[in-house]
Amino acid sequence: MSHNSLDLARTLHQSGHRLTPQRQIILDTLCETGGHVTVAELYERVHGRFPAIDRSTVYRALDFFGALGLVSAAGIGGATVYEVAGQGEHGRHHHLVCRDCGDIGHVPDDLFDDFAARLRDDYGFVADADSLTISGLCRDCGVGRGEGGKG
Amino acid sequence: MSHNSLDLARTLHQSGHRLTPQRQIILDTLCETGGHVTVAELYERVHGRFPAIDRSTVYRALDFFGALGLVSAAGIGGATVYEVAGQGEHGRHHHLVCRDCGDIGHVPDDLFDDFAARLRDDYGFVADADSLTISGLCRDCGVGRGEGGKG
DNA sequence: CTGAGTGCAAACGCTTTGCAGACAG
DNA sequence: CTGTCTGCAAAGCGTTTGCACTCAG
């Protein structure tokens, strides 16, 4: 967890904003969950412990932290999921979404480099290094399915 | 345009469904547009010429053609866009979405093969061959931006 | 004829917003 | 004190659904 209250407070003040308990709770809860969370799930958790906190506050906090670069959002399978940005050493990464179990895995940026280079060379398209979402079958769900993945 | 009325009618009958003017119009309009269209845009066009056609009919037709594999949907930048599946020789392809001008380009499947192979080898993840959406800057918008593509 | 498909309108789920009051600074 | 932020409640947006009627087959 890389955001202790003091650092966070300072960061917020730099941009002329405030550190409220709600924001701390929401960010903490997001950190605890670790992975990708929908607003609904996050609100469940937050609201479970602090019933006074409203859905709209969660939305606003998520949006707010997003603008600060502390939280990143990804649209996966129609739903919007949030995660703490730059978790640990992960830095940039892409998402592997299993279409079977819904699990979301990470791939480091560099695996994508070759592909991105070809995109640039052949199409003149400079791909963003993050927020790439790849759907498919994860290791567990893909086992014993044969080569049906291409069909 | 690869769907003349007779072929289409036959295809539908095979699955025990009907060919209605609404469906023809909606599919035709989608073909005319050529690229990626939102339901709103498609409805605009369809409804412009045939005011009696309802939004829900557009949704249902799109869903219906999707189930038949004639139309494919992709969630891009929070919006859902539709296109005729397997347009010409394109077959499987991925989407290059320019974050600047919003333009959507295509990349053939095979460019993705190496990346997919590494995903499979290193992560045991069998990527679906289509519906991959890559955000970035297209040739036009990327020009004159410096080499900041990685940062 | 028969029932798949349509138009209508209302419901739906997720997200945003206007407002008055609350509280961090 | 100031004005940012909150909770509430209601609106907004895109999408789905129940219903009676219509029309393709």
Explain the overall architecture:
2 copies of one chain form a homodimer. Chain A is an alpha+beta fold and 151 residues long. Chain A has 6 helices and 7 strands. Chain A has helices at 5-14, 21-33, 39-49, 55-68, 113-123, 139-142, and strands spanning 37-38, 71-76, 79-84, 93-98, 104-108, 126-127, 133-137. In chain A, the strands form 2 sheets. In chain A, strands 1-3-2 form a 3-stranded antiparallel beta sheet. In chain A, helix 2 (21-33) packs across helix 3 (39-49) and helix 2 (21-33) packs across helix 4. At the A-B interface, helix 5, strand 6 and strand 7 of A face helix 5, strand 6 and strand 7 of B. Strand 6 (126-127) of chain A pairs antiparallel with strand 7 of chain B. The structure holds a DNA duplex (25 and 25 nucleotides).
Keywords:
homodimer, 151 residues, Arc Repressor Mutant, subunit A, Dna Ligase, domain 1, globular, disordered C terminus, DNA-binding
